[in-house]
Amino acid sequence: MEQIVVQVSDKQKAKVLFELLTALDFVDSVKTSQTEEVQEDVTDQEEKLDFFSVAGLWQDRDVTLESIRQKAWPRQYS
Predict the structure, then answer these.
(1) Sorting pLDDT into bands at 50, 70 and 90, what band is 61?
(2) Residue 8: how many other CB atoms lie within 10 Å
């Protein structure tokens, strides 16, 4: 298991980073120096912003790279 230590000077940005890391399924645990305060804010925001809430957005839809390209850059013939 790998461990990364990150020091963040801005408290608000630290909260955002904490939320992102806790949303990732391959992260085992996230510890901060102010875990209690951050944890309370995260639980409130998790209800509003769930990273994986759109996981099945494209399920049962026929979306390919080619169809996206055709819609984004339609060829105009003169």
Answers:
(1) confident
(2) 13
